[in-house]
């Protein structure tokens, strides 16, 4: 009986489920231009500088560099200016591909 009830509840929940509605896509911009890191960009959102705002970290497949776009806007309304490459020991962090 429990399994039958559970299956009925799952079926009922699924029958009333609606497809999600999405807004049209937009490009993220930095300094007024679309952010373009080349092929296979790998973005990650993280508060890099500890200011409670979401920053954008993005790897570049072709060069292996890692870009940092600091959020100059608000946490829920980010705005990005130009990027800088992440460094370790004064040298750019480069992650080889392939």
3D structure, described in words:
Keywords: Signal. Residues 1-19 form the signal peptide. By secondary structure, the chain is of the alpha+beta class. It has one domain (28-98). It is built from one helix and eight strands, in the order H-E-E-E-E-E-E-E-E. Strand 3 and strand 4 (55-59) form a beta hairpin. The mean pLDDT is 86.
Average pLDDT taken over every residue: 86
User: Structurally, how many domains make up the residues?
Assistant: 1
Work out the strand percent: 15-25%
Number of helices: 1
Cα(first) to Cα(last) distance is 54 Å
Shape, please? Answer: elongated
- Biggest pleated sheet: 4 strands, antiparallel
* Neighbour order of strands in the largest sheet: 3-4-5-6
Proportion of residues in helical segments: 10-25%
**Can you tell me the residue ranges where pLDDT is under 50 for at least 5 consecutive residues?**
none
Oligomerization status of the protein chains: single chain
Radius of gyration: 21 Å
Order of helices and strands: HEEEEEEEE
- Provide the structure class: alpha+beta
- Write down how many β-strands occur, each being a DSSP E stretch of 2 or more residues: 8
